[in-house]
């Protein structure tokens, strides 16, 4: 089978890159094991604001302006609703945070994302917020798991190969050859497992484990994402996503009783209602030492490319990142310096 591109990995990065290729009429196949990834587990929260410090996310406006229409278009492809615009209600902790919020909401970089008016806790008595809620607008939740499942079924049923790539069996030359596949290039979208990729293992992909709970709570509103010490985000059918922990030391996907207890205690700090725990899961985020994505071409091999390092904001960033990579490969357009893997080239030549 001869194709233009072989995509390795099918989380949100692989999907968004596949969509770039599909929409530009390029031939491709995707190779990825049929198992859960960080993308399946993610809260899918699209949020342009760093809610700890009330700063905009890096290039927030560009990412957001590209992501919303991109996901709406994907909804048409998969014929299923996947993007749910929802406000985020940040629970303010004290007067200092109220002041900081007011300053941020009046600044040019955030005024379109932050509501200046505080919202009284009387609006939702089921959630404790004695210093009020502060509202993020232009936020959303993307149902990534549904998107991934339906995209395979409805858009690329004959281009998806449910198996893991064995890097040792890859032949890299003028073309890429793998079993019966011959491709002009390969784009690796392997998430945290990319640290095992022998071509790109010089990059500082560090990884951060996250555990989450899925709960059922009959009387809680489905119209808001709450952000206290952790997120509480509606998933429909009276179920909610609760997360997440951050752990840089443990790189397994086993769940721990300690993390579960921590999540429950944080949730109980602000939720006044009883809830039932339906599920508890863990995955590893592909985080990078300088907190920027990893995009670009291998320093030596002209047809090996990478789309990785999406960290904690993959759902917001990956649509535009996939466009940047596509335009780089096809039209030699520059990747923004902060995201280009060239910034780590000396690590490669040092090894
Ligand atoms: C608990 C948790 C909560 C999160 N919440 C959010 C959130 O609310 N909003 C947000 O934007 N982000 C969130 N994130 C981060 C988000 O999950 C990531 O940024 C994003 O999903 C990374 O996508 P990816 O496609 O790069 O990697 P992954 O989703 O990890 O996918 C990698 C893919 O590559 C495959 N693969 C790996 N090795 C091989 C191989 N050798 N051969 C073939 N396939 C291979 C894997 O099987 C998988 O299919 C969260 C992450 C976690 C863990």
Largest sheet: 8 strands, mixed
**What is the radius of gyration?**
21 Å
The CATH homologous superfamily of the largest domain is termed: FAD/NAD(P)-binding domain
Text of the CATH class of the largest domain: Alpha Beta
What share of the residues lie within helices?
25-40%
Task: From the 3D structure, determine the CATH topology of the largest domain.
Answer: FAD/NAD(P)-binding domain
**Number of helices, counting only DSSP H or I runs of 4 residues or more:** 8
- Return residue spans where pLDDT drops below 50 for at least 5 consecutive residues: none
Can you tell me about this structure?
It is a single chain. Helix 3 crosses helix 5. The protein starts with a strand and ends with a helix. The chain has 8 helices and 20 strands. The protein is an alpha+beta fold and 351 residues long. Strands 1, 2, 10, 11, 12, 13, 19 and 20 form an 8-stranded mixed β-sheet that branches. It has a 7-stranded mixed β-sheet with strand order 8-7-15-16-17-14-18, with helices on one face. Flavin-adenine dinucleotide binds next to helix 1, helix 2, strand 14, strand 18 and helix 7.
């Amino acid at each position: 089978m001869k194709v233009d591109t072989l995509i390795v990995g099918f989380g949100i990065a692989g999907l968004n890159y596949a969509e770039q290729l599909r929409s530009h009429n390029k031939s491709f196949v995707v190779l990825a094991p049929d198992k859960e990834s960080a993308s399946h587990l993610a809260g899918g929260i699209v949020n342009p604001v760093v809610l700890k410090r009330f700063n905009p996310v890096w290039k927030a406006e560009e990412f957001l302006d590209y992501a919303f229409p991109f996901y709406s278009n994907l909804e048409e492809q998969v014929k299923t609703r996947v993007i749910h615009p929802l406000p985020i209600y940040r629970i303010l902790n004290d007067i200092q945070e109220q002041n900081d919020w007011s300053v941020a909401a009046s600044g040019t970089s955030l005024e379109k994302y932050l509501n200046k008016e505080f919202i009284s806790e009387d609006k939702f008595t089921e959630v404790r917020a004695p210093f009020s809620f502060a509202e993020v607008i232009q936020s959303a939740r993307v149902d990534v798991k549904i998107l991934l499942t339906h995209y395979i079924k409805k858009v690329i049923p004959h281009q998806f190969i449910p198996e893991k790539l064995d890097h040792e069996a890859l032949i890299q030359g003028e073309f890429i050859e793998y079993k019966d596949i011959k491709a002009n290039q390969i784009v690796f979208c392997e998430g945290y497992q990319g640290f095992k990729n022998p071509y790109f293992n010089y990059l500082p992909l560090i990884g951060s484990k996250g555990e989450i709970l899925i709960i059922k709570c009959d009387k809680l509103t489905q119209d808001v994402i709450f952000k206290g010490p952790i997120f509480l985000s509606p998933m429909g059918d009276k179920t909610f996503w609760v997360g997440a922990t951050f752990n840089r030391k443990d790189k397994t996907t086993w769940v721990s009783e300690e993390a579960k207890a921590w999540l429950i205690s944080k949730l109980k700090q602000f939720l006044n209602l009883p809830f039932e725990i339906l599920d508890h899961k863990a995955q590893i985020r592909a985080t990078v030492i300088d907190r920027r994505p990893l995009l670009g071409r291998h320093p030596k091999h002209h047809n090996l490319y990478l789309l990785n390092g999406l960290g904690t904001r993959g759902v917001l960033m990956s649509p535009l990142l996939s466009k940047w990579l596509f335009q780089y490969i096809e039209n030699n357009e520059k990747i923004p310096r902060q995201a280009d893997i060239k910034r780590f080239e000396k690590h490669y030549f040092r090894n």
